[in-house]
Design brief:
Elements: E1 9-10, H1 19-22, H2 26-35, E2 43-44, H3 45-51, H4 61-66, H5 75-86, H6 91-103, E3 119-120, E4 123-124, E5 128-132, E6 135-138, H7 172-180, E7 187-190, H8 200-211, E8 218-223, H9 225-228, H10 231-234, H11 239-251, E9 255-261, H12 271-281, E10 286-293, H13 301-313, E11 317-323, H14 330-333, H15 337-348, E12 359-364, E13 368-378, E14 381-391, E15 401-404, H16 427-435
Helix pairs in contact: 5-6, 7-8, 8-11, 13-15
């Protein structure tokens, strides 16, 4: 049964007003208050009332996904903030301490601030990223929040109010101009935050601006609204307008992909989520699903295989299993690469071919999306076998390379080349790409006669 539920944010200001939270031990509530001074915290009435099993606290996966835990901060950082709160420190002192801790948490991993912001007509386009040749990411300014915040989110810096850490753009026309000047771009991804937080009329302005760009074949919308507020597609005041907008994209001959972030099968278990999926699919849009692998939330093959199977049964396409990025509360969630591969492999072999569209486990790192193909023994040396699913230079894609086996490593930068090599095959060219304002060269990837995008990877 679909329940009528009014949206209400759950934040640091009001979380202790909810009866479920009032039943938590005072120590746990204080931990939430401390961590939320540093990391963004926001849940909502749907998560609290429909997704979290309050008999399983603190082990419930959705509770872990949306409520802070003391171990999300290093002990020294936690103690520092706790002392300031206990001493009733001035807000300015508390904010200064929180900002200092935030800057130590790698707020913009994979070069997204330094190397992914494009330039058009000598002007940096701050609300965009262009890392891979075919795909541009656009951050509409009205979409830079979410219905609830994921505690693992690699874009947590968008939500903490620190100067210079936020991507956002209102300039739909500037986006269209940029795309028209670069006919090799075929895909635009609206991201955030969550674009589905916007009213439909705002989202429509951005989408309408690029519908007439002939080289753009696919429009993607990255969202967690199906999971955190499915009413956006079924009962919000402008839900029907939103679905009509989706239909208009299809009518214009563009592919529309809703890139949906399912972190656990529980998120698809409610009638509201299932109704939202059907409503989106009825417009002709396709839903692709992705998630990082995270300790305490979904680090079991059983969870992943069940989630993929439920998604396929609902007509969705499993797309990516990621490694949680090296930012924010990384230590709380990280899973060693070898265990990530074991989980992926065990889950993969439990599902049919229809669910084996999923790719991973993959790290979205500085040079590109690096997939762990497996662990093998070559010339007597135990190694990780890796390749690129996407790369700053497209010529690197799908070229196997090898790293020394390391059972503790959890990110690409912790791996070393195998067989006595001093560096990975892409290292010198990557350095040149990041130092050279011309960025990657389409000629190097086999394109016959494209315009070289001199500003794509401007630092």
């Amino acid at each position: 049964m679909i329940r009528d539920l009014k949206y209400q944010s759950v934040t640091l200001a009001n979380f202790e007003e909810f009866p479920q939270i009032q039943k938590l031990p005072e120590r746990m509530r204080k931990d939430i208050r401390v961590v939320a001074q540093v990391l963004p915290f926001k849940s909502n009435s749907y998560c609290v009332n429909r997704l979290i099993d309050w008999t399983r606290i603190p082990h419930d996966p959705i509770f872990t996904l949306t409520f802070p835990h003391r171990d999300m901060l290093e002990p020294e950082a936690f103690d520092r903030i706790e002392r300031l709160l206990d001493d009733n420190a001035a807000p300015e002192a508390l904010k200064a301490a929180a900002d200092e801790i935030r800057l130590s948490l790698n707020p913009h991993p994979a070069g997204q601030l330094q190397h992914n912001v494009p330039v058009h007509e000598e002007e940096p386009l701050e609300g965009m990223q262009h890392m891979y040749r075919e795909t541009v990411l656009f951050f509409p300014s009205q979409g830079q929040t979410c219905h609830a915040y994921c505690t693992f989110c690699f874009r947590w810096a968008q939500f903490v109010g620190m100067e210079g850490l936020k991507f956002a753009s209102r300039e739909a026309q500037r986006l269209a101009e940029y795309l028209k000047a670069r006919p090799y771009v075929s895909d635009v991804l609206f991201t955030g935050g969550d674009p589905m937080i916007m009213k439909t009329r705002m989202l429509k302005e951005y989408i309408d601006a690029i519908l007439s760009v002939p080289s753009v074949k696919s429009i993607r919308i990255g969202t967690k609204a199906i999971q955190y507020w499915p009413q956006r597609f079924i009962s919000d005041d402008d839900a029907q307008e939103l679905l009509a907008l989706f239909r208009s994209v299809r009518a214009a001959g563009k592919h529309l992909a809703v890139m949906s972030h399912f972190n656990h099968w529980i998120e698809l278990s409610t009638p509201e989520a299932q109704a939202a999926v059907r409503a989106i699919q009825d417009t002709g849009a396709q839903i692709r699903t992705q998630s990082p692998l995270m300790k305490r939330i979904n680090d079991s093959a059983k969870t992943w295989s069940k989630m993929w199977q439920m998604q396929v049964e609902a007509g969705m396409v499993p797309y990516y299993m990621f490694i949680a990025r090296n930012t924010g509360a990384r230590r709380f969630f990280e899973v060693p690469l070898v265990r990530a591969w074991d989980i992926f492999r065990d889950a993969y072999k439990q599902v049919s071919g229809l669910a084996r569209t999923v790719r991973g486990p993959s790290m979205s790192a500085l040079p590109g999306k690096v997939r762990i193909i497996g662990v093998s023994e070559v010339l007597g040396e135990k190694v990780f076998v890796l390749n690129f699913l996407q790369a700053r230079n497209p010529d690197w894609v799908d070229r196997p390379f090898f790293a020394k086996y390391d059972e503790k490593a959890s990110w690409l930068t912790e791996l070393e080349p195998a067989f006595g090599e001093k560096k990975f095959f892409y290292a010198d060219e990557l350095r040149e790409l990041l130092e050279d304002r011309s960025g990657w060269s389409p000629q190097a990837s086999g394109d016959p006669d494209p315009v070289i995008p001199e500003e794509i990877l401007a630092p």
